[in-house]
């Protein structure tokens, strides 16, 4: 699925802005067949939960309705007209006029539909979408629905972030010619200093495309013809971490036919023993797990916040992030492509472990992988989420690894039977990138049942917080013991994809203890000492970039406070200590880079 772009042959009409909004039950039985009231409007893109003050909206479980009138340009006659939703959390059913046109399940990947037969250029069309935020054992992420005493559904979620919902990303109409380019797949390689861009082009009518590769100045580098081929690039300028270079692959269907331009970064990714290699050079990940999360907007995409977050990552010396725990808006990957930031791209498969809470607070356990919990239906939804992730993000050079799950019950019986076909599917869809999952602490090097299926060991560990709370000496010993156990047992690189402590900004203590800013500094410094002693560790991604909202509970006071930055992006004291470490790493890689004077 190609990202909509304006070209010589394609046009876009953004549908962002204010839409009419209603909860299911506030309007008639067929809301799509009538005009919704205008007394409540909701912005798109944004999650609806925090915008309004009514508690029944913030905590709503079930369907909501979005609707707006769309003026279809008269100049679009004779073109194919497509309606695209960049996401709808967690499922969407869309109508044009009175007609159902598309349904989609999965809240973090796009879907679109050809509506040429449902609209008339020069006239107004009514677009309505029903969005359902309910999660079950047959959705990704999974959840549990229970019926409250008042007879209404209540949602229990298995992930530790707020279940924001709505149209959190852009909605667009766009056009293509009737005979059009449907998809492009690019894979790159470098052999003996010669770059290669392998391409496949899918066209609607099997037309033979012409293909050109142009450099950043628009100069023609090489060209080809046909629906598949390989372009040789002498002396290629590689896409590298911190030094991005993007070529343009221009695809055309005949003289005056459809045209599409795809940015291409030439680079290689490989795992060799306990090294992670980009362009055949060892790479060390520094950065964060993040969330799409901000005040009022919830998970709503915001270009201003996007640019500011990247500025903060650059300031602190981060070279990477993980899209925890779902695919982010594609704008994040496009910007990472431009900035040379490395991305671990993750599906929304978080919560495939029904015993985590029991491990923390005690209580009965049950089988995670079973017909009553994570079943064949769960795995089918999981497989579809992998397909849609790779279909959308396969061409981004910033994406160097697929993460197909976060903290599953990988030490439990049934885990291998569940995951083995999913790993095979991922490798079939994209044999060029390593595959991983984020491992939770109950699954150690001596009892994990699936780690051998994957290329990289990614660990989420909280020694010093959930275990050995406040005792960093004991935590340091436990952490090093486990990392050395992984390194000795599995000849794979290790990335610490989560480690951190809840920290209340402004809380200081002469005797550092949990929740203080001093404890956050001491905690991270301890982890970094251990990382530096274990050669197999090739990355550190702190949990979390910024504080974020969670469901209310006794473990969370107005959300998760593990951020290095507050939710409104102010640095905590640890930020400068972290900047000193990471900027020194940058300077060590390039002797020409001075360590900034403000460290």
Q: Briefly, what is this?
A:
The protein has 599 residues and is α/β, with parallel strands linked by helices.
User: What do we call the CATH homologous superfamily of the largest domain?
Assistant: Glycosidases
CATH-assigned fold name of the largest domain: TIM Barrel
Look at the helices and sheets and give the structural class: alpha/beta
The CATH first-level class of the largest domain comes to Alpha Beta
Give, in spatial order, the strands making up the sheet with the most strands. 23-24-25-26-27-28-29-30
**Beta-strand content:** 25-35%
Q: What would you say the CATH architecture of the largest domain is?
A: Alpha-Beta Barrel
- What is the rounded Rg? 24 Å
Number of discrete helical segments: 9
Family: Belongs to the glycosyl hydrolase 2 family.
Organism: Agromyces albus
InterPro entries: Beta-gal/glucu_dom_sf, Galactose-bd-like_sf, GH, Glyco_hydro_2, Glyco_hydro_2_cat, Glyco_hydro_2_CS, Glyco_hydro_2_N, Ig-like_fold
Domain Glycoside hydrolase family 2 immunoglobulin-like beta-sandwich: 180-267
């Amino acid at each position: 699925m190609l990202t909509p772009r304006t070209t010589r042959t394609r046009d876009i009409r953004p549908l962002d802005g204010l839409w009419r909004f209603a909860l299911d039950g506030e309007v008639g039985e067929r809301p799509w067949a009538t005009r919704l009231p205008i007394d409540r409007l909701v912005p798109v893109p944004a999650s609806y939960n925090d915008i309004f003050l009514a508690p029944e909206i913030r905590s709503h479980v079930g369907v909501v309705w979005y609707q707006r009138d769309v003026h279809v340009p008269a100049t679009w006659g004779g073109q194919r007209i497509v309606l695209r939703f960049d996401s709808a959390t967690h499922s969407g059913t869309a109508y044009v006029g009175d007609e159902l046109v598309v349904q989609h399940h999965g809240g973090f990947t796009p879907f679109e539909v050809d509506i040429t037969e449902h609209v008339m250029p020069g006239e107004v069309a009514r677009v309505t979408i029903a969005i359902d935020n309910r999660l079950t054992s047959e959705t990704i992420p999974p959840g549990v629905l229970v019926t409250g005493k008042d007879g209404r559904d209540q949602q229990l979620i298995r992930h530790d972030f707020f279940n924001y919902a709505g149209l959190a990303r852009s909605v667009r109409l766009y056009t293509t010619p009737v005979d059009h380019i449907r998809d492009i797949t690019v894979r790159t390689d470098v052999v003996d200093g010669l770059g290669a861009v392998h391409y496949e082009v899918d066209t609607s009518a099997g037309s033979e495309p012409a293909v050109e590769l142009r450099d950043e100045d628009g100069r023609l580098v090489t060209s080809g013809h046909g629906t598949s081929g390989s372009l040789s690039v002498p002396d290629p300028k590689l896409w590298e971490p911190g030094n991005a270079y993007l070529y343009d692959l221009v695809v055309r269907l005949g003289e005056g036919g459809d045209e599409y331009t795809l940015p291409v970064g030439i680079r290689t990714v490989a795992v060799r023993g306990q090294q992670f290699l980009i362009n055949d050079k060892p790479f060390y990940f520094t950065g964060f797990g993040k969330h799409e999360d901000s005040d009022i907007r919830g998970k709503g995409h915001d270009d201003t916040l996007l640019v500011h977050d990247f500025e903060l990552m650059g300031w602190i010396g981060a070279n990477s992030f993980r899209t925890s725990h779902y695919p982010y808006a594609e704008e994040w990957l496009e910007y990472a492509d431009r900035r040379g930031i490395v991305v671990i791209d993750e599906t929304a498969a978080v919560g495939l472990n029904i015993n985590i809470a029991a491990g923390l607070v005690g209580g009965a356990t049950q089988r995670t992988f079973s017909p009553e919990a994570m079943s064949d239906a769960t795995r089918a939804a999981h497989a579809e989420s992998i397909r849609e992730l790779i279909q959308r993000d396969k061409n981004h050079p910033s994406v160097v690894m697929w993460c197909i799950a976060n903290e599953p019950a990988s030490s439990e019986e049934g885990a291998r039977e569940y995951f083995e076909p999913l790993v095979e599917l991922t490798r079939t869809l994209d044999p060029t990138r390593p595959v991983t999952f984020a491992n939770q602490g109950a699954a150690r090097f001596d009892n994990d049942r699936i780690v051998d299926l994957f290329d990289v060991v990614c660990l989420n560990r909280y020694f010093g917080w959930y275990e050995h709370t406040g005792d960093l000496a004991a935590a340091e010993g436990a952490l090093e013991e486990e990392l050395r156990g992984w390194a000795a047992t599995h000849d794979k690189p290790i990335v610490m994809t989560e480690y951190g402590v809840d920290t209340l900004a402004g809380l200081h203590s002469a005797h550092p203890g949990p929740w203080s800013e001093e404890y956050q500094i001491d905690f991270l410094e301890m982890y970094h000492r251990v990382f530096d002693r274990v050669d197999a560790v090739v990355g550190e991604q702190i949990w979390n970039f910024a504080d974020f909202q969670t469901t209310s509970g006794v473990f969370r006071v107005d959300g998760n406070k593990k951020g290095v930055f507050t939710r409104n992006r102010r640095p905590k004291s640890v930020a400068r200590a972290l900047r000193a470490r990471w900027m020194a790493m940058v300077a060590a890689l390039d002797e020409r880079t001075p360590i900034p004077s403000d460290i």
